[in-house]
Amino acid sequence: MHIMEGYLPLTWCIVWFVISFIIVAFGIYQIKKIVDETPESKALLAVSGAFMFILSSLKLPSVTGSCSHPCGNGLGAALFGPAVTAVLATIVLLFQAILLAHGGLTTLGANIFSMGIVGPFVAWIAYKGLTKANISSTIAIFFAAFLGDLLTYVATSFQLAFAFPAPTFSAALGKFLVIFAVTQVPLAIGEAILTVIIWDRLKAYKPKLLNKLGALAPNEA
């Protein structure tokens, strides 16, 4: 989903950068609050960021001017919420743009918006909704990771259609969605399974910390 350097018009680069900057700034505030209240959560923040970095670096080329890959944003969203995940995504995307030529600096705001804001927000809503209904956090994290991945690409499709609405916005959107869906649906399923494996390990070894972060279902606390 990383939109490559120089691909978006300058106007859209500025729009996505401004929106993303606001969310990331709030996320930095939330990280400070979480670390002050729960210092032992630093390791989980690092794990969430590393998980996102590794998965989102496994890219497949796409003809859309972007690429397909797992996102890894569901884990951080379930643990810390979407704003914190936006900060983690910013760090990941910045490193990838500079060190791996994956994405770009001019498109950084757009990529943060899709992978660091929209995807995690949907994942967080799905996770919180399911766990509040006393559905196992293992099942909840599967759907959170799956939907977080897919909605990241839906957001990217909208971004590309806004920038290149030819012949019409709806036609462009449909084209981008179809192209991404071919590779992204199976990738999202694989990512969800891998996230479940990591989550169950965390639940087994750090149940008290997960409970302290409010990341477990009420019947698991």
UniProtKB/TrEMBL annotation:
MF term (GO), any: cobalt ion transmembrane transporter activity
A single Gene Ontology CC term: ATP-binding cassette (ABC) transporter complex
Bilayer topology: Multi-pass membrane protein
Entry keywords, A to Z: Cell membrane, Cobalamin biosynthesis, Cobalt, Cobalt transport, Ion transport, Membrane, Transmembrane, Transmembrane helix, Transport
Domain of life: Archaea
Pathway in which this enzyme or protein is active: Cofactor biosynthesis; adenosylcobalamin biosynthesis
Membrane-crossing residue ranges in chain numbering: 7-31, 43-63, 75-99, 105-127, 139-164, 176-199
Coiled coil: none
A Pfam family matched in the record: CbiM
Subunit: Forms an energy-coupling factor (ECF) transporter complex composed of an ATP-binding protein (A component, CbiO), a transmembrane protein (T component, CbiQ) and 2 possible substrate-capture proteins (S components, CbiM and CbiN) of unknown stoichimetry.
Full protein name: Putative cobalt transport protein CbiM
Source organism per UniProt: Methanobrevibacter gottschalkii DSM 11977
